[in-house]
Design a protein that fits this description.
Layout: E1 6-9, E2 24-27, E3 33-35, E4 39-40, H1 52-69, E5 77-84, H2 90-101, E6 107-112, E7 123-130
Parallel strand pairs: 5-6
Antiparallel strand pairs: 1-2, 3-7, 4-7, 5-7
């Protein structure tokens, strides 16, 4: 984690997190703030697999490549927004998520929605980062 800019904190004044996320993320002054378009589970050829967990894998690969392309790491991520059209296999998802982000995890919001941009997209993840 980039300790100079991003700090992930918890508060004893609210309920314990129900997942792998941090309630509070602090960004130091003079940091550069990045927002990213949502990433989906398309592979490098643009093919979107039917299997949800394969879309999970591809989405995190796309996020990794996106961060690397501008010299950022998962430690720079301050917020994760997740949208899914079907129930997430949390055991599988958290295995990939925890391997990617480590502990403590960034702040997170999850929503189940009826549809995303294309019918075959089952998962979209948006990240925010700071450096």
């Amino acid at each position: 984690m980039n300790h100079k800019v991003v700090s992930r904190l918890d508060s004893s004044k609210i309920s314990k997190a129900v997942g792998n996320y941090t309630h509070i993320t602090k960004i130091e002054p003079n940091a550069t703030f990045y927002t990213f378009s949502g990433q989906i589970g398309a592979d490098l050829e643009g093919i979107i697999p039917k299997d949800f967990n394969q879309q999970v894998d591809n989405t995190f690969l796309n996020i990794s490549n996106l961060l690397k392309s501008i010299d950022l790491t998962p430690g720079n991520v301050i917020k994760v927004n997740i949208w899914a059209t079907e129930e997430i296999d949390w055991a599988y998802f958290y295995n990939v998520y925890d391997d990617f982000f480590g502990k403590p995890s960034p702040s997170m919001t999850v929503a189940y929605v009826n549809a995303l941009g294309l019918e075959e997209i089952k998962l979209e993840i948006e990240i925010w980062a700071a450096k």
